[in-house]
Write a structure and sequence with these properties.
The chain is an alpha+beta fold. It has helices spanning 57-60, 89-92, 99-116; strands at residues 11-15, 21-25, 33-35, 43-45, 52-54, 72-76, 82-86. The protein contains 3 helices and 7 strands, in the order E-E-E-E-E-H-E-E-H-H.
Length: 117
């Protein structure tokens, strides 16, 4: 019978000199280790934001696995060069931010600055 884990692990990859790769938990007082390929589909904590996510093919390749909301994305800049920028996504405009809400906040800032002049 399998033992139920007491917490969700925060994994990090380690490669031995023999070429064998494992993931180990970086949380204090946890000595959990799992083979590289057996980590696929397991729940783990993001190494950037701390949110819980499921390991997939992309996260298996990472030294410190993170969720899809964190990390970097490849975009083209003004000159047409490809650069990597951090994903900020939904963390800046969390939940209730709408265009009307943002417009009213911007109008308040503009009105205050006009009064100071």
């Amino acid at each position: 019978m399998a033992k139920k884990p007491s917490h969700v692990h925060k994994l990090r990859k380690h490669k031995y000199p023999t070429g064998t790769m494992i993931f180990f938990c970086t949380l204090p007082d946890c000595y959990h280790k799992i083979d590289y390929m057996l980590a696929f589909g397991k729940q783990t904590l993001c190494n950037i934001c701390g949110a819980e996510f499921t390991m997939d093919e992309t996260s298996l390749k990472l030294q410190k696995p993170h969720c899809k909301d964190c990390g970097k994305v490849k975009v083209k800049d003004v000159e047409g060069k490809h650069i990597f920028v951090k994903k900020v996504g939904n963390r800046i405009l969390a939940g209730t931010a709408t265009s009307q809400n943002l417009r009213s906040r911007l109008d308040n800032v503009v009105k205050e600055s006009e009064e100071d002049i």
